[in-house]
Amino acid sequence: MSDLPKHVDIHEEGPREGFQIEPGPISTADKVKLIEALAETGLHHIQACSFVNPRLVPGWADAEAVVESFTAKPGIHYTGLYFNGNGLDRAQKYQDKLTLTGSISLTASEGFTKKNLNRTHAENVEAMKRQSALHVARGIPVNRVGVMAAFGCNYQGDISPAQVISTLEDGMRIAEETGAEITYFSLADTMGWAAPHRMERMLGEVRSRWPEMKISLHLHDTRGLAVANAHAALKMGVAQFDSTVGGLGGCPFAGQPKAAGNICTEELVLLCEEMGIETGVDLDALIEVGRMAEDIVGHQLPSELIHAGSLDAFRRKAAH
Amino acid sequence: MSDLPKHVDIHEEGPREGFQIEPGPISTADKVKLIEALAETGLHHIQACSFVNPRLVPGWADAEAVVESFTAKPGIHYTGLYFNGNGLDRAQKYQDKLTLTGSISLTASEGFTKKNLNRTHAENVEAMKRQSALHVARGIPVNRVGVMAAFGCNYQGDISPAQVISTLEDGMRIAEETGAEITYFSLADTMGWAAPHRMERMLGEVRSRWPEMKISLHLHDTRGLAVANAHAALKMGVAQFDSTVGGLGGCPFAGQPKAAGNICTEELVLLCEEMGIETGVDLDALIEVGRMAEDIVGHQLPSELIHAGSLDAFRRKAAH
């Protein structure tokens, strides 16, 4: 219990994860409305858009329009996702509004690297070297090594801690060669393979290898275990998570059209709060935003909490 | 970790919990089909119907027809829910097919007892005394003290371990006075108030008071924390759970029409299996039954796993 963090940092990715996968179309105005509403809940990190190829991700063809349209709230870090120099160029046009930091993003599964990026792992390492060097040359800090499919892969099966450590070592070598200063690792359960015991073993082994490095988790609730995985991770001191309001998003991999998306931000906040961990988020306000997200996409989202209401709302009613 | 059970007993309540709340109508034939399919998955306890007042629960007006129609599989305990002598009379007609055991069922929240049963707690204690005595007189074992709303209540707010212990003490007094031999406690999170830390505290305090008593959990996923709560309980050695296939059921209390139902059986099985705990259940077969349940009720069920498929199915594919 002593490992429990006092505060958890939540990086909201609902706009980016959600609108890239919704059959839509979702209007630019609705995207802006959601981003601005999220900013009023106490969240400090919001991934607002995706600067990816609009032919591949038509849902984000309006990334520029969205960034130009939303009113930024002081103190909030808005970010945009991108994968290459072209995406970085697009993001840099908004560097007054967006927080730009680079990431060395690798994948623990060679099978997934090929399917998702059409590259071998070795080719991806070379691409990330160029990407990291480009950021450093432009004075943009590269502070993160990310590992996708860190807990398992629909194409390759289970992923061992040794495989993840080897991938992180590749990332740290890239950082060293390119002059990047890594402050944290992000482990992504991209296809919903994590389970609490394997989560504990993974975190334990990565922490044995890099005792001082912060670890962030990007969890998907593909098989309903995301909150249990977050619980296991919190008990091991993990203090940073990505999540999406309402559970926006989905799993575009390996024929799972109805599969759930990321861990819901509001369920993560509830879990933390009930464990006595601060998030700085107003849960009732966030639940309202989850309901707004449901209205925007026009179908029920996976979050149970937005349908049931917070405990504090019932506590207040019961006290009267 | 040493408290982790080797085996978990799952009591499937999907037919009873699900069909009592679905707007329906669900045909008797479909109910029978689901019960018979569940029996092929390796589950050993199936709550097949509810002998309650058909005016209050029209979805179970055909309880007798269902019990008469399904083919019982040897080795499986089929049960029916009932709350009073009239219900017991109805269930006893099928004592060759149903496993009859009595329960002393109390509620930790006076507010909920009034709303749900239109009784005070004291009146409920008297009713349970009569109920237990009736079972004992008929030679039906009463082996369970159940506490509803054990983790919180929409009408009363948080419920303390002291309140649950006091309710269990009332139950044990009833057992003693009526000659019932209690072998386990069932704690129900009827309205989805539990969270992992409070779960640990509750289990710890109940176990301090009755170190030898087995504890079973009946969890609802109303706010998305059910699997995390199960994880916390498994780590404290809890080895018996109620659950519903597909997450059938819902929350008929306090205006939550879209709220989720019980913890999903298949997500509980996945959690156990990935933690190395046996359940005896064939997860892929159970996922197929979850999909059947979704077809029967005609709308998407809360289970994420039935939409994503099991890990083992992907492991097998990846190995080829």
List the helices and strands and how they pair.
Two copies of one chain form a homodimer.
Chain A (H helix, E strand, L loop, with lengths): L8 E4 L1 H8 L6 H11 L6 E6 L12 H7 L7 E5 L3 H8 L9 E6 L2 H8 L3 H17 L4 E7 L3 E2 L3 E2 L2 H18 L5 E6 L6 H14 L4 E6 L6 H10 L4 E4 L21 H10 L8 H15 L7 H4 L2 H9 L1
Parallel strand pairs in A: 1-2, 1-10, 2-3, 4-5, 5-8, 8-9, 9-10
Antiparallel strand pairs in A: 6-7
Helix pairs in contact in A: 2-3, 2-11, 6-7, 7-8, 8-9, 9-10, 10-11
Q: Quick recap of the structure?
A:
The structure is a homodimer of 320-residue chains. By secondary structure, chain A is α/β, with parallel strands linked by helices.
Describe this protein with a few key phrases.
homodimer, 320 residues, alpha/beta, TIM Barrel, 8-stranded parallel sheet, two-stranded antiparallel ribbon, 10 strands, 15% strand, globular
Q: Biggest interface, and residues per chain? A: A-B, 52 and 52 residues
Q: Whole-number average pLDDT of chain A? A: 94
pLDDT under 50 segments of chain A (min length 5)? none
Number of H/I helices of chain A: 13
Helix content of chain A: 40-55%
Approximate shape of chain A: globular
Q: What's the CATH first level of the domain at 9-100 and 244-319 in chain A?
A: Alpha Beta
Radius of gyration of chain A: 19 Å
Fourth-tier CATH superfamily name of the domain at 9-100 and 244-319 in chain A = Aldolase class I
Question: Hey, roughly how much beta strand do the residues of chain A contain?
Answer: 15-25%
- Strand order, main sheet of chain A: write it out: 3-2-1-10-9-8-5-4
Strand tally of chain A: 10
- The quaternary organization reads as homodimer
Distance between the terminal alpha carbons of chain A, to the nearest Å? 34 Å
CATH topology of the domain at 9-100 and 244-319 in chain A: TIM Barrel
Sequence of secondary-structure elements of chain A: EHHEHEHEHHEEEHEHEHEHHHH
What would you call the structural class of chain A?
alpha/beta
| CATH architecture descriptor name of the domain at 9-100 and 244-319 in chain A | Alpha-Beta Barrel
